[in-house]
């Protein structure tokens, strides 16, 4: 099996996340994508806007991906209840699926700072990085290629051209707090869940 871990705060999950999963599934020929809401991202530990709790973010992900049979939503990092270092998650799934080809989906901006991640060498020794790079002629593509080449001494890195789906969870939260319509940003069942459970109020 070819399984990919797709982590993030998903605060909230939106159509950009869904689109990314679908493109990665097709272009990297994956069998399964494990969507993984973070407990607290190391890069957002002091972020006061991290306002949806883990249970809500997990349920929103389950609703958002319910029509994607290739996606499994996992609460592993939330259940650990510790700052979410990616290496710990990769180690866990490496143990659970010892015979599978394991991948980690990240954005292009994350690749440029990947060598600052906790135990990044160990991550690359256990899985292949799938880096989403914009299909519309990203100016820094040569920079991404150079970074991938630099890090390839530790493991395999694949740059995957993806269509741009510009969306921001921060912007969506601001619209919710200002009672603006968000139905164009996410599936209807997620919009309904946010409203009925006052997730961001």
Describe this structure in words.
The chain is of the alpha/beta class. The chain has one domain (2-196): HUPs (Rossmann fold). The chain is 40% helix and 18% strand. It has helices spanning 15-27, 54-64, 76-80, 86-96, 108-112, 120-126, 141-151, 169-177, 188-196; strands at 2-8, 32-37, 71-73, 101-107, 128-134, 157-162. The protein has a six-stranded parallel sheet, with helices on both faces. α7 (141-151) links the parallel β5 and β6. α2 (54-64) packs antiparallel against α9 (188-196) and α4 runs parallel beside α6. The protein is globular. The chain starts with a strand and ends in a 5-residue tail after the last helix.
The helix content, as a percent range, equals 40-55%
Q: How many strands in all? A: 6
How many discrete domains?
A: 1
Give the class from helix and strand content and strand pairing.
alpha/beta
CATH topology: Rossmann fold
Mean pLDDT: 91
Query: Can you list the strand order of the major beta sheet?
Result: 3-2-1-4-5-6
How many helix segments? 9
SSE sequence, one letter per element: EHEHEHHEHHEHEHH
- Radius of gyration over all CA atoms, rounded: 17 Å
**CATH domain class:** Alpha Beta
Shape: globular
- Identify low-pLDDT runs: none
Q: From the coordinates shown, what is the CATH architecture?
A: 3-Layer(aba) Sandwich
Report on the biggest sheet.
Answer: 6 strands, parallel
Provide a brief overview of the structure.
With 201 residues, the protein is an alpha/beta fold.
């Amino acid at each position: 099996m070819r399984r990919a871990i797709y982590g993030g705060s998903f605060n909230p999950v939106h159509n950009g996340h869904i689109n990314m999963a679908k493109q990665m599934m097709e272009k990297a020929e994956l069998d399964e994508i494990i969507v993984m809401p973070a407990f607290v991202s190391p890069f957002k530990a002091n972020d006061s806007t991290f306002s949806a709790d883990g249970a809500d973010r997990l349920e929103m992900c389950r609703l958002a991906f319910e029509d994607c049979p290739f996606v499994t939503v996992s609460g592993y990092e939330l259940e650990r209840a510790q700052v979410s270092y990616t290496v710990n998650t990769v180690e866990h799934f490496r143990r659970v699926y010892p015979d599978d080809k394991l991948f980690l989906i990240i954005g292009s901006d994350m690749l440029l700072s990947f060598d600052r991640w906790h135990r990044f060498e160990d991550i690359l020794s256990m899985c292949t990085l799938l880096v989403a790079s914009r299909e519309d002629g990203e100016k820094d593509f040569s920079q991404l290629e150079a970074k991938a080449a630099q890090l390839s001494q530790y493991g395999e890195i694949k740059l995957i051209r993806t269509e741009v789906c510009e969306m921001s969870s921060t912007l969506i939260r601001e619209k919710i707090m200002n009672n603006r319509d968000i139905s164009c940003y996410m599936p209807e069942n997620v919009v309904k869940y946010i409203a009925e459970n006052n997730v961001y109020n």
